[in-house]
Q: What sequence folds into this?
């Protein structure tokens, strides 16, 4: 089987982040295995997906703090769970993965939101991420 694209990789992470919203932390390893079986993830792809998913999950307190500052007027609990999963991956990439340019993370997030989200998801995701690029909310909160 051919190597998965970066987009496919991101889509798997977004699905897993979405799935994680409905399970206890202790269940995530088992849910991850179920997910890989369901989507027939090739063996060589399992570890990179596992690593990225659990790394993003471990950084959620920081990621969510950045998101909460940038999403003025919205609580994370009020957001569509699909949009939240897309935003979490994008913010993780923008703030904690210097190998990915911010513009790439934003464009990928908007495209994935367009695919998985509602009619306005892509514009909502784009707006929140644009605030993060321009305002750098994590610095704002550290200095404020």
A:
């Amino acid at each position: 089987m051919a190597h998965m694209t970066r987009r496919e990789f991101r889509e798997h992470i977004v699905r897993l982040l979405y799935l994680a919203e409905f399970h206890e932390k202790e269940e995530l390893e088992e849910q991850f295995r179920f997910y890989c079986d369901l989507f027939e993830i090739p063996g060589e792809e399992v570890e990179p997906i596992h690593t990225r998913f659990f790394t993003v999950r471990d950084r959620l307190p920081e990621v969510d703090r950045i998101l909460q500052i940038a999403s003025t007027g919205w609580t994370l609990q009020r957001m569509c769970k699909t949009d939240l999963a897309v935003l979490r991956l994008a913010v993780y990439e923008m703030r904690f993965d210097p190998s990915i340019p911010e513009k790439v993370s934003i464009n990928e997030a908007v495209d994935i939101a367009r695919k998985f989200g509602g009619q306005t998801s892509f514009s909502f995701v784009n707006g929140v991420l644009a605030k993060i690029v321009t305002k750098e909310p994590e610095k704002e909160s550290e200095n404020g």
Residues 11 and 112 are 7 Å apart (CA to CA). The two ends are 50 Å apart (CA to CA). Helices lie at 6-20, 28-38, 43-58, 60-70, 81-96, 102-116, 121-135, 137-143. The chain is about 75% helix and 0% strand.
